[in-house]
Amino acid sequence: MSTNASSLIDEMKEIWGETFEQLNNSERLWLLSSLTGTMTADANSYYDPHKVDGCITPTTERFNELSFQEQLGLCEALINQIKSNLTNR
Predict the structure, then answer these.
(1) For site-directed labelling of 65, which of 50, 56, 73, 75 has its Cα 20 to 30 A away?
(2) pTM flag (> 0.85)
(3) How many Å apart are CA 54 and CA 50, to the nearest integer?
(4) How many Å apart are CA 74 and CA 78, to the nearest integer?
(5) Residue 2 DSSP class
(6) What 8-state DSSP symbol labels residue 17?
């Protein structure tokens, strides 16, 4: 982790607590949304927009059909798969 990243995480912990316990769920969701937007803003060694199949878009347009718990579970499953793929690199 870069020094700047460590510094930012340290600042976040100072403001919101070691485990961000001072944030409410709306703030956590907003940060998560903003973070994933940043992660996919540019192509990099982890993300290539040219490798996103066209069938993904119609699915994302239907996410509102899922309950909040289903959406949360989907987020968790996708994050776990991404993390698993990173360790297998």
Answers:
(1) 50
(2) no
(3) 10
(4) 6
(5) -
(6) -
